[in-house]
Specification:
By secondary structure, the chain is of the alpha+beta class. It is built from 7 helices and 19 strands. The strands form 3 sheets. Strands 3, 4, 5, 6, 7, 8, 9, 10, 11, 12, 14, 17 and 19 form a 13-stranded mixed beta sheet that branches. Helix 1 links the parallel strand 5 and strand 6. Helix 1 packs across helix 6 and helix 4 packs across helix 6. The N and C termini lie far apart (43 Å). The protein binds zinc ion. The site of zinc ion (ZN) has 3 residues, from loops.
Length: 350
């Protein structure tokens, strides 16, 4: 049996779904501002998972992932506690920008302080009101503006339990990612709360496939934590591709890029990824892959300056594992079981 707890001055009782609007500093107009949080606190004791999005205010795929997740009828059978925070950086979200108004990065401002910058104060509030109540977390991101990512989980794969949970999401690609100082993932980890990062799609855009893989991934994660009933007759898990090193191929010259390597495609060392040319096509320069690998991220804006990061290549020792993963991964079948199949009734976002 669970006990009640306090969040933002609201008592969350077992067997309830409660919306809490966490007060944050006012807008400059003096209008009040809050971070919306919804908590499903079941009667049965179990893990306490937070799911958050838009830590970077322009990364909106996760906002839609959380909306779909919270509408699932299977949440009535939740064990433990689900804490959903669809828009963490509310100031960036309303301005449609990645950062806070003073250009600080919230995801470099943890653990934060009550006397620091606005970003630092939000970080501290998030630790106090969300992370402190949680045992696990998943943080939803997209590529930066004009950059898109193939659906991937970033996590510390050398940590056994984190590795188990990352694989359980059944997201096609896992990237072993070092901890960045000041990030939510690094700080929560220090508090004993392992956090996975789901990265998919592009800032300021919805991507239906990335949203579906994300919803299914969180449901799978919650099953691995015994928070949701296990799926009946679930197919053998296709092994995710694990990437342990990656590099960005940068623009060798400025110009207009004609990209030819698709996101998620396999490339060989020396293979052409695109061509940069001047407006008349008199000078063309090929962009080639430095290594064999998979295109895990790429630019979406064709206008490039020398040095711009164009293609993010996840290095694969052999392409066999990558080919097997891509074969096993059917992007139209993210809603493959009884928990998520009801979402097929919703028209896809196009
Ligand atoms: Zn981000």
């Amino acid at each position: 049996m669970q006990t009640p707890f306090e969040m933002g001055g609201v008592t969350i009782v077992p067997g309830s779904r409660t919306t809490v609007n966490l007060p944050v500093p006012n807008l400059s107009t003096a209008a009040p501002m809050t971070i919306p949080v919804q908590v499903i606190h079941s009667k049965q004791a179990g893990p306490r998972l937070f799911v958050c999005a838009a830590l970077h205010g322009d990364e909106i795929n996760g906002v839609e992932i959380i909306r779909r997740l919270m509408r699932l009828t299977v949440m009535r059978r939740l064990r433990g506690t689900l804490i959903a925070v669809p828009i963490v950086n509310v100031f960036g979200f309303v301005s449609q920008i990645r950062y806070l108004p003073d250009r600080r990065d919230l995801n470099r401002s943890f653990p934060g302080s009550a006397k620091g910058s606005l970003a630092s104060r939000l970080a501290q509030l998030f630790i106090q009101e969300i992370v402190r109540h949680a045992t696990h977390g998943i943080d939803l991101h997209t590529g930066a503006i004009h950059r898109t990512n193939y659906p991937q989980i970033r996590a510390d794969l050398d940590h056994a339990e984190t590795h188990r949970l990352a694989v359980a999401c059944r997201v096609p690609l896992l990237i072993n990612a070092g901890l960045r100082k000041g990030s939510l993932r690094e700080t929560a980890g220090r508090y004993g709360v392992p956090v996975l990062v789901y990265e998919a799609g592009e800032a300021l855009r919805f991507d239906e496939n990335c949203i579906r893989v994300g919803v299914a991934g969180i449901v799978n994660l919650m099953r691995a934590l015994d928070m949701l009933p296990h799926a009946r007759g679930q197919a053998e898990e296709p092994a995710p591709l694990i990437i342990r090193s990656s590099s960005w191929e940068r623009a060798p010259v400025s110009g207009v890029l004609r990209a030819t390597a698709e996101l998620g495609s396999l490339v060989k060392a020396g293979e052409q990824l695109g061509v940069i040319s001047d407006p008349f096509g008199e000078n063309e320069m090929a962009v080639k892959s430095p290594d064999s690998g998979i295109v895990v991220g790429r630019i979406t804006l064709p206008v490039v300056n020398e040095g711009d990061a164009l293609f993010h290549i996840g290095h694969t020792t052999g392409t066999k594992a990558a080919a097997e993963m891509l074969d096993a991964y059917d992007k139209d079948e993210a809603y493959h079981d009884e928990a998520t199949s009801e979402l097929k009734q919703e028209p896809p976002i196009v």
